[in-house]
Amino acid sequence: MPAPDKTAAPAAGAWTLASAKARLSEVVERAQASPQLITRNGKPAAVIVSAEEWAKKTLRKGTLAEFLLASPLRGAGLDLERQRDAPRDIAL
After folding, report:
1. Which of 11, 51, 67, 76 has a CA 20 to 30 Å removed from the CA of 42?
2. Nearest alpha-carbon partner for 33 in 12, 49, 44
3. Parallel, antiparallel or unpaired: strands 14-16 and 36-40
4. Which PANTHER family does this UniProt record tie to the protein (predicted)?
5. What is the DSSP string of 3-71?
6. What is the pLDDT of residues 11-61, one digit of tens each?
7. Is 9 left (phi over 0), alpha (psi -120 to 50) or beta?
8. CA–CA distance, 57 with 70 (Å, rounded to integer)
9. Domains (range + CATH), the chain
10. What is the pLDDT of residue 7?
């Protein structure tokens, strides 16, 4: 029985580190269509995605202030009161 090919391309987009190193061009090419998982010692270690997908995921969609101003709870009349308790005594 022949030894398994450790550099064979995976079917489901999961690569061992050794096969990803040996076939980096193919990993990058496949990443254009879908994310490619790279495993090390059988555990997920990294994911290769296209530059377009990375740009979509990391694009800032506004400021924190804009996010808070767009909250559906804004103007809901919530009565939030800050506790005025004294700080706890902590032995240092």
Report:
1. 51
2. 49
3. parallel
4. ANTITOXIN (PTHR33713:SF9), ANTITOXIN YAFN-RELATED (PTHR33713)
5. PP-TTPPPSSSEEEHHHHHHTHHHHHHHHTTS-EEEEETTEEEEEE--HHHHHHHH---S-HHHHHHT-
6. 567 999 999 999 999 999 999 999 999 999 999 999 999 999 999 999 988
7. beta
8. 21
9. 15-70 (3.40.1620.10)
10. 52
- Cα separations in angstroms, 50 against 29, 32, 38, 62, 65: 9, 5, 14, 23, 30
Tell me the residue length of the chain.
92
- The answer to whether the Cα torsion of 87, 88, 89, 90 is positive or negative is negative
For the beta sheet containing 43-48, the strands, ordered from the edge strand earlier in sequence to the opposite edge, are: 14-16, 36-40, 43-48
